[in-house]
Amino acid sequence: MLKQAKGNIVILTGAGISKESGLSTFRDPDGIWAEVNIDEVATPEGFSHNPAKVHEFYNARRERLLSGNVLPNSAHFALARLEAQWNASVLVITQNVDNLHEKAGTRNILHMHGELTKARCTTCGIVLIWRKALSRNDICGSCTSTGSLRPHVVWFGENPLNMHKIQTALKDAAVFVSIGTSGHVYPAASFISQLKSQKEVMTVELNLEPSANAPLFEYSTYGEATKIVPAFVHGLLESQ
Ligand code: BV8
Fold it and tell me: Least buried of 16, 24, 83, 115, by fewest C-beta within 10 Å?
């Protein structure tokens, strides 16, 4: 399979790639949505109904991410190595709001669901680096309004970020690799069907178990990301 791989690589990642770094996934039995109600913490309605509850949910995740105990794993490092050594472009499109791809060295990355380490002002729209707890008492450093800062995260019913750049990259992709995602959340879950109707694109799923979109992928390997992703990247780099 890897012999034929050449050209631009687009990689979609989900929570599964960060699981072995100690971050929970969403839909696994021990996932986040087993603990909290999606509608209460990951929708604009939930935020307007009880902003303190939503701030608490994201503050706990931000604190965990920045605690020093959550580090990139060998799958994140393998993708950074691929970007550095592949003879065409490598773009990571991540659904994750953690910063582990960047901490592993990935530079060419698009977060489509936002970032835990950023806050956005609902008054002036500015996006700020934010590494501490966020609450209604915080003041926007740009327009000085109080209580208008929210997590810079995309909730259900909100438009994902960077969609124009994502569509452009998908059109130019020669290889599409989906890693650690269950294929339940749109529009990310629709990328594979879009690519199937496009020119020659090699499609690969690397996941712990078959995702909802598994039948649509040409190739697949199942196992833990820290094992199957470095092996896949090694095979790609050896084949070029
Ligand atoms: C939008 C907030 C319009 C950030 C999240 C009906 C049909 C189709 C669509 C819809 C519909 N009804 C509503 C919709 C739209 C909705 C949607 O898709 N709903 C679903 C539930 C049906 N989507 C939206 O609202 C999106 N916006 O559609 O706007 C639009 C459309 C097109 C263009 C422009 C505008 C907004 C979606 C974003 C919502 N925000 N979270 C946060 O708090 O983190 S979603 C949440 O799910 C996270 O962002 C997460 O990234 C995302 C996807 O989850 P996964 O990453 O896949 O995680 P999951 O736990 O599900 O799976 C983990 C996988 O890893 C598993 O397969 C597991 O086996 C594997 N794994 C586990 N361990 C390992 C492993 N793999 C390898 N190694 C391991 N060790």
Answer: 24
| Residue 183 CA, ligand 1 centroid: distance in Å | 7
Give the single-character DSSP code of 219. Answer: E
Question: Closest Cα to atom 19, ligand 1: which residue?
Answer: 185
**Token pair for 35:** 């603990």
Q: Which of 55, 111, 113, 152 is catalytic?
A: 113
Q: In whole angstroms, give the CA distance from residue 217 to residue 177.
A: 9
Q: Are strands 9-13 and 90-94 parallel, antiparallel or unpaired?
A: parallel
Residue-wise pLDDT for 12-52, tens only, equals: 999 999 999 999 999 999 999 999 999 999 999 999 999 99
* 204: its two tokens: 């690969």
For the stretch 204-228, pLDDT in tens is 999 999 999 999 999 999 999 999 9
* Ligand 1 geometric centre to CA of 6 (Å): 29
DSSP secondary structure letter of residue 239: H
Helix, strand, coil shares of the chain as percentages rounded to 5? 40, 20, 45
- The verdict on pTM exceeding 0.90 is yes
CA 178 to CA 214: how far, in whole Å? 10
Q: What is the pLDDT of residue 1?
A: 66
Assign 180 a pLDDT band (cuts: 50, 70, 90): very high
- Strands (DSSP E) contained in the chain are 9-13, 90-94, 109-111, 114-121, 127-129, 149-153, 175-179, 202-207, 219-222
